[in-house]
Amino acid sequence: MNTLRFYTKRIFVVVCVLFFGILVFIASRSSSLEAQSLSDNIVRKGIQNFPRGYRILPRPGEQLAFQSQPGPVHNDRVRYQDLGVDRQVDQEVVERIQMHLSRSDLVTQTLSECAVNETLEQYWLRINGNKVPKRDSWERFYSDIGTCDLYRNEEQIDELLHDMSTLPIKHVQIMDGGTQVKLIFTFDNDKQAVFKPMRFGRDYETDPNHFYFGDFERHNAEIATFHIDKILGFRRAVPTVGRVVNMTKELRDNAEKKLKKTFFVSPAKNHCFVGKCDYYCDTTHAICGAPDMKEGSVQVFLPDDRSVPRKHNKSPYRRTYSKKTQLAVWQENMDFCRDTVKTNPQYAHGRKLLDLVDLHIMDYLIGNQDRHHYESFSVFKDLASYAIHLDNGRSFGKTEFDDDDILMPLRQCCVIRPSTMLKLMHFYAGSKSISETLHESMSKDPITPVLAYKHYPALERRLSKIMKYILDCLDRQTGGPSKMIMNEYHNPSVANTGIEDEDDKDENAKL
Ligand SMILES: Nc1ncnc2c1ncn2[C@@H]1O[C@H](COP(=O)(O)OP(=O)(O)OP(=O)(O)O)[C@@H](O)[C@H]1O
Ligand SMILES: [Mn+2]
After folding, report:
1. With contact defined as beta carbons under 8 Å apart, do 420 and 361 qualify?
2. What sign does the dihedral 138-385-317-233 (CA atoms) show?
3. Would you say 219 and 201 are in contact if contact means Cβ atoms under 8 Å apart?
């Protein structure tokens, strides 16, 4: 009997030990899981969601996550006033600029900015008596391409934008040229446009370890730049609009064979394609729908360059496009414009230098460091051509960084068109800010809001910096503002040969 009691006691002890042992084991496991999900949360949500006093330092060498592709954005028309964007106006800068300009009549000066204002339609009629067709919005846009700007009639452009975002797509092919994936859409009316698909969400910031030449293209940057160019009064950017397409019905089913082959369904059951291009055309960088809807930008095709020829011009302010030599001469020598650009026969006479300054003012606002070449029409034989503001896909990548080097043409050459000066002053000190005007202009786009709103304060900040650089130039003019604000630049010490730049087919802009 005693032995039996002894064994029962022992069994009881063993069972107790086992029971508590298992309890301790479970408790310790669940607390380590909790810790893990806590640290997962830190990674996912970022440190800012953590209790006060709790600081998680980034691990050395931590890199940005490659964000997954979001679905198309649903329209939310936010009132600008509700965004609380501050204008950055320095009243002293305004007053000092106004003092410099007090004896100039810029408004009258702008009237003679465009010496010969002719459209393609008028030009062809004059040169060879040809009448151009104007059957659809594409042909009306082409016929109205001008000697001083791409378009004037905004109603006509709105019609074109509407057609590009709604007309049935008949054929889709891969677009050659350039570095990243682009498609050519042919619509029901046989007219064409360039489609750049969305890669990232609107709030994506460029990886700081990427060079400007390796940065991803952003479809919404193409759309936003079209609007910025328009509100700045340049009208030299190619009309571009947003569109949400069906990856299967609209793209795959109408795709040429070599594009169709690259379509697949991802493990997440989304429809994707890879396309064919020099950079980022592989399965890990595939363009994926949600599940088969895809947002992108649609840009009108410029007229066929066999009938409306264009030239490719190398910019004197192009960067090095090299990982090794990172600074170009103009980034280190503030006399570069005086010594090298103003003395270059291409820039010494006429509109070209002023075009370059306009283009870089726009690039500064949009944060585009990738302006290596620019195209211009060479169709108007007897007239000076202007820079077409094409290829703006690498802008709007950084909201916290202003690259003042982009403004070097303005800072070094110290020249500006009267209309540009007036427009900038209007946005800086007038009734409506640049970001409000942009917001209104973009609100008509089918994929509005085109930009993340965090870009608006960046625009205001950059505009205020431009105005400070302009004031700096005005302060330095010994001959008064007319030495800086002009319709055409002329360097008296360089002979005016009237020779236009040679076409530059050099493809040195690749990675
Ligand atoms: N709307 C258009 N109409 C006609 N041609 C165009 C149009 N857009 C682009 N192209 C032509 O295709 C070329 C490449 O386009 P784009 O520069 O946009 O591509 P990309 O991939 O951004 O190139 P890169 O990486 O060199 O900047 C342009 O230089 C131009 O000649
Ligand atoms: Mn580009």
Report:
1. yes
2. negative
3. no
Ligand nearest to the CA of 389: 1
Ligand 1 pocket test: which of 186, 276, 310, 391 has the largest number of ligand atoms within 8 Å of its C-beta?
A: 391
C-alpha span between 217 and 233 (Å, rounded) = 25
The 10s digit of each residue's pLDDT in 295-348 is: 999 999 999 999 999 999 999 999 999 888 889 999 999 999 999 999 999 999
Closest to 336 in 3D by CA, of 351, 355, 356, 322:
356
Q: What distance in angstroms lies between residue 190's CA and the mean position of ligand 2's atoms?
A: 26
**Residue 199 dihedral angles phi and psi, to the nearest 5°:** -110, -40
Count of positions (residues) in the chain? 511
Round to whole Å and give the CA distance between 23 and 330: 71
Q: What is the ipTM of this complex?
A: 0.96
Average pLDDT, the chain: 88
The DSSP bridge pattern shows strands 192-197 and 293-300 to be antiparallel
Tell me how far CA of residue 211 lies from CA of 214, 327, 361, in angstroms. 5, 12, 21
Q: Are 215 and 321 in contact (CB under 8 A)?
A: no
Q: Whose CA is nearest to atom 14 of ligand 1?
A: 178
The atom number, within ligand 1, closest to the CA of 277 reads: 21
pLDDT number for residue 462: 98
CA 511 / ligand 1 centre spacing (Å): 15
pLDDT at 501 over 70: no
Ligand 1 neighbourhood includes 177 CB (under 6 angstroms): yes
Pair of tokens at residue 313:
């011009």
Distance 303 CA to ligand 1 centre (A): 13
Under 8 Å between Cβ of 151 and 145: yes
CA dihedral 149, 310, 389, 142 (to 10 degrees): 50
Helix, strand, or coil (residue 225) = helix
CB-ligand 1 contact for 301 (6 Å cutoff): yes
Q: What is the pLDDT of residue 507?
A: 47
What letter would DSSP give residue 418?
A: H
Paired strand residues for 265? 271
Q: Which ligand 1 atom lies nearest to the CA of residue 393?
A: 22
> Atom 20 (ligand 1): residue with closest C-alpha?
178
- CA distances (Å), origin 149, targets 141, 157, 182, 223, 238: 12, 13, 26, 18, 10
469 CB near ligand 1 (under 6 Å)? no
The structure tokens listed for 96 are 């000092």
Backbone φ and ψ of 367, nearest 5°: 70, 40
In this structure, are residues 463 and 367 in contact, taking their beta carbons and an 8 Å threshold? Answer: no
What residues act catalytically? 370
Does the C-beta of 238 come closer than 6 Å to ligand 1? yes
